[in-house]
Write a structure and sequence with these properties.
By secondary structure, the protein is an alpha/beta fold. The protein has seven helices and nine strands, in the order E-H-E-E-E-H-E-H-E-H-E-H-E-E-H-H. It has a five-stranded parallel sheet. Strands 3-4 form a two-stranded antiparallel ribbon. The two termini are 30 Å apart. The structure holds 6-chloroguanine.
Amino acid sequence: MKIDIISVVPDLLQSPFAHSIMKRAKDKGLLEVNVINLREYTTYARAQVDDYQFGGGAGMVMMVEPLVNAIESLQKKTTYDEIIFLTPDGETFNQKTANHLSLKKNLLLICGHYKGIDQRVRDHFITKEISIGDYVLSGGELAAAVLVDAIGRLIPGVLNDETSALTDSFQDNLLAPPVYTRPEEFRGWKVPEILLSGNHAKIDQWRQEQAHKRTQEKRPDLLEE
Ligand code: 6GU
C-alpha cells in the first residue's frame, strides 16, 4: 500500500513512521509513506499557501491553487482509491474505517491547517473527510499519523503474529480482555488461575467473558451498535 500525505509541516510526519511496527511495514515493502511539502507547489511569492477568507473573519484559509497543483501533479503518477481530507468536521474515524482503508492500494491524505482549506478543493477532489475525534488539533498532521498507524498495522504481513490484529480492541465491537505476563505472582497479586491451566478452550471462553465484562463496564455503547 502507498500513502501520500500533503502537508505544510512535513517535519511533523517524519518520526511517527520511523519506528516499531510502521518501520517494519516500510522495511518489508508492505507500506510506502511519502510526505509532500505543499509549499513546493505554490506559485505565489514567499511560498505562500494560505490567505485571508472572503467575507472576513478570523483565521487564514489554505488556497485552492497550491492544493490543486499538488494533487494533480501526484495524480499523474498515481491513481488514488481515496483522497482523504483530515478535518474536525469529517466522519469520526474508527476501527471499521481502518479495516476498510487497509484494503486499498493508494491513498492520498491532505492535512488542513488554519481555518481549513478552500471549499472548492473539498467539492472537486476530496472523496472522504475524516476526523479523529471531537476536539480540535492545530493541524491534520497528527490525525494523519493516527490514520497511517491504524491502517498500516492491518496490512497483511505487517504484524508478526497474523492473528493479533483480530484480537485487538474494537474488532467485533468488543474491548480486549486483560493480559498478564511473568511473574505469576507479584506482591501477592496473582495471575488468574485459568490462564496458567493450559486449557485453551477454557482460556478462550474466559477471555470472551472478560471482553464482554470490560466492554459492559467501560463502553456499553459498543454493545448497542
Ligand atoms: Cl482530522 N484535524 C484537526 N485539525 N483537528 C481534529 C481532527 C483533524 N480530528 C479531530 N480534531
